[in-house]
Amino acid sequence: MSEWQVKKLEEMTARELFAILYTRSEVFVVEQECVFQEPTIEDLTCLHVFKVDEKQDLVAYARIIDNEEYITFGRVITASKYRGTGEGQKLLTTVIAEINKRYPNRLVKIQAQAYLEKFYGSFGFKSVSDYYLEDDIKHIDMAK
């Protein structure tokens, strides 16, 4: 299995981009039954954090976005065949380390699916909003 990659869009190979967009669509649009634009305009300027396996299939992925006022990350996914293997924790460890390296001492805010509140809490994130629905999925805002 490869190492974690952190790349801008123009640094990615066509195969890497395909694996990311395919898996994001598979998870967010098909599995979670959310109809929304995928990919999004943020993909042009964000940092893509990912790992692929020996077949070049996506293992896990997130993107980091500098919103000027704060840093955020999202589109956090672990491919279905790698769920429960610890790759999600490794992904978040990598994402947070990359944020700390590139954007030291900046506020980090995320929109978390409510069932992952404890997971993000284990990385130091605190809830900063009430629960709300986005795409019919319960979410909460968190910050660190």
UniProtKB/TrEMBL annotation:
Q: What keywords would UniProt list here? A: Transferase
Question: Residue ranges of the N-acetyltransferase domain?
Answer: 7-144
One Pfam match: Acetyltransf_10
A GO term, aspect molecular function: acyltransferase activity, transferring groups other than amino-acyl groups
Q: Does the keyword NADP apply?
A: no
Q: Which domain of life is it from?
A: Bacteria
Is RNA-binding included in the keywords of this UniProt record? no
The protein here is known as GNAT family N-acetyltransferase
